Every structure is written in structure tokens, then in C-alpha cells.
Amino acid sequence: MDFPFDDAPNTAVITCCHILDHGAPILHVSHDADDGMWLFLCGACHDESEGRIVSLHYIYTHDSTVAQIARMPCGCMADRETAGRNWDIQREI
Predict the structure, then answer these.
(1) Predicted model pTM
(2) How far apart are alpha carbons 22 and 15 in whole angstroms?
(3) Where are the domains of the chain?
């Protein structure tokens, strides 16, 4: 399968320790309007110490369903209730 994102597989993205260390599902994704940074989070509240930097390829191999939002433009975010559900994409306010 081809890599679905326009960004390179080694692009740095932000995720949280809940996803990396505790197996929480990715439930919130943001594609920043200012710098194009991707954030893949579990949907819980976080403080800075819980953030982790990984590659976009790592996120994709961890949860290939993020391919469904690979073409989400900058300035948008996507949420879903549980893993395997459809993404709800909205413009960031």
C-alpha cells in the first residue's frame, strides 16, 4: 500500500503518551493552519509533559485508519467517538 499522506513518512508529528505507552486509540487529529504540524491525540486532556514526537509513518503503522484523513487540509481537525468509527472533520475555530 502506498503512503497516503502528502507529507514525507519521516515528518515529525505530535502524539501523546497515552497512545504510545498505554495503547489508547487515536480519537482526535489536528492539522495546524500555521505550520502544517499534525497532532494525533487520544482525546483526553494533556499537559506538555505527556507530548511525544514520532514520525508520521509510525502513526500510520500504529493505526492505518488515519489514512482516511490523510488529505485533510491545514486548519482542520477530525474527531471520532471510538476506534473504527468514522471521522468527523471540521475547520478549526
Answers:
(1) 0.93
(2) 12
(3) 1-74
